[in-house]
Amino acid sequence: ANHPTPAGSEVELRARSVQVTNEELQTRIGQVEELLAAALQELVAASLAVSHAAAAAKIASDAARAAAELAAREKDGLREEVERLTDLACGAEAGEAEREKEREGLREEVERLTDLLHAVATGETE
Fold it and tell me: Would you say 96 and 90 are in contact if contact means Cβ atoms under 8 Å apart?
């Protein structure tokens, strides 16, 4: 009376089949979880790499901007120095021209006085 009936053995076979299928599913779920964990690690690593690349790009951009500003300041400084030296040179030329005028005026005055002395000495005064 304790012998399994054909319907009972079929249920038992199906139960074993479900158990095997369940174990296979658990194994596959474990494998998928491992793959997901590995993919997540790769994603985190890639995210860090992108973050580091972005930080490096910002540093490079800031350095380029600072170099451009420094170059512009140096250019402005050089321009100002050229203008100052040009002004000095023009001032020196103007000063030289003014001194030349003074010398010419003095020459004319010396000539006039020389002529006057000569006239006085020779008695040719008016």
Answer: no
